[in-house]
Design brief:
By secondary structure, the protein is an alpha/beta fold. It has twelve helices and eight strands. Helix 10 links the parallel strand 7 and strand 8. Helix 2 crosses helix 3 and helix 4 packs antiparallel against helix 5. It is globular.
């Protein structure tokens, strides 16, 4: 598996195709394998690169250390983009990875050509004037308590209920459940990841072409975030993937791929 040295850390990735780079950033409990349904379709038009963030699979992290933070992952992705030596990239982030992609656009706009946010995770602050939906931290805390008692399956059931609703763990394909098991100890880092809420001024400061992607069956908290960002990011385009929940790129990859590739072709 190829890696790229990012400030002394070997960042693993997988790639397919040739041409302008499109970098895919996974969310909580995922890794580069999450994007398997996108690789062939995106690789037919671009050099598509799916990264595994610091401390995610294939690394077997013990949960020890203070470098599992949003800021560190943002810096890593920005450095990865620069190390490609291909000019501004197209960046796609899902869930927590969408939050990271947003922060890359906020702090390193010169490194991006286009931005795709697939239900970015987190919360809106009071500047949006909207009802504040519960962020992921409560579910993370509950899951970490279970991990520390050795009940990994229940921890994963608890956390995925936050992202996908009751029964989502049981209904998830075994291949996706195994990816989550492989990354379960990253929740130990996420409990102290220092994720700040989105603010209206930050969203208004995003000037790179942006696509917001949601699932028609997703939990309400993601729609609240999407509504706020859509109103605040100038020129943002929004699409909804039918017959799909929060994991829309896996739930309905054909529709997801078609909508995202159409946006990237125009930007």
């Amino acid at each position: 598996m190829p890696t790229l040295d990012i400030g002394g850390y070997d960042m693993a990735y997988v790639e397919q195709g040739a041409g302008d780079p499109v970098v895919l950033v996974h969310g909580t409990l995922q890794d580069q394998r999450y994007w398997a349904p996108q690789m062939a379709a995106f690789g037919a038009k671009y050099r598509v690169i799916a990264v595994s963030l610091r401390h995610f699979w294939p690394e077997k992290w013990d949960g020890v250390g203070d470098d599992f933070t949003i800021a560190q992952h943002v810096a890593d992705v920005a450095a990865f983009a620069e190390a490609l030596n291909a000019g501004p990239i197209r960046l796609v982030g899902h869930s927590r990875g969408g939050h990271i992609a947003f922060r890359v656009a906020q702090h390193f706009p010169e490194r991006l050509r286009a931005l795709v946010l697939a239900e970015p995770g987190g919360e809106l602050d009071d500047s949006f004037g909207a009802v504040r939906a519960a962020g992921p931290q409560g579910a993370v805390i509950d899951a970490v308590k279970l991990i520390r008692t050795g009940d990994v399956e229940e921890a994963l059931r608890v956390f995925t209920a936050y992202t996908g609703g009751a029964g989502s763990w049981e209904n998830r394909p075994e291949s996706r459940r195994q990816i989550s098991r492989d990354n379960v100890r990253t929740l130990l880092g996420q409990i102290n990841e220092q994720r700040a809420p989105f603010s209206r001024s930050q969203a208004e400061g995003i000037h790179v072409p942006t696509l917001l992607v949601g699932g028609a069956l997703s939990q309400p908290q993601f729609g609240i975030i999407m509504d706020g960002l859509e109103k605040s990011i100038a020129g943002a385009v929004r699409v909804t993937i039918p017959q799909a929940a929060h994991g829309m790129s896996a739930d309905n990859p054909t529709a997801f791929n078609d909508d995202v590739l159409a946006f990237l072709a125009a930007n």
